[in-house]
Specification:
The chain has one domain. 84% of the residues lie in helices and 0% in strands. It has three helices and no strands.
């Protein structure tokens, strides 16, 4: 019986934490994951050697643009 009560409390905790995590990102977990990946990609591009014929610099510009668009999408969803 004691095990069942602990299991129930753990299940409730998981549900509450999942809900809280969804609210923290405005209910946009996929957009937040995309933003995290783009920021990681930006860091990798920054750490890369030399400019590679301008392609690294252009990639950084495009990643920055993508980051901006994802943030705008998250903000839009939060306000609608």
């Amino acid at each position: 019986m004691k095990f069942r009560g602990i299991f129930t409390l753990l299940a409730i905790l998981v549900v509450v934490l999942g809900y809280t995590a969804g609210c923290a990102t405005g209910g946009q977990p996929h957009m937040q994951a995309a933003l995290d990946h783009l920021q990681s990609a930006r860091s990798e591009l920054q750490a890369a050697n030399s400019n590679k014929g301008g392609h690294r610099e252009r990639a950084l510009e495009l990643v920055d643009q993508a980051i901006s668009e994802v943030r705008a999408g998250i903000d839009f969803a939060a306000s609608h």
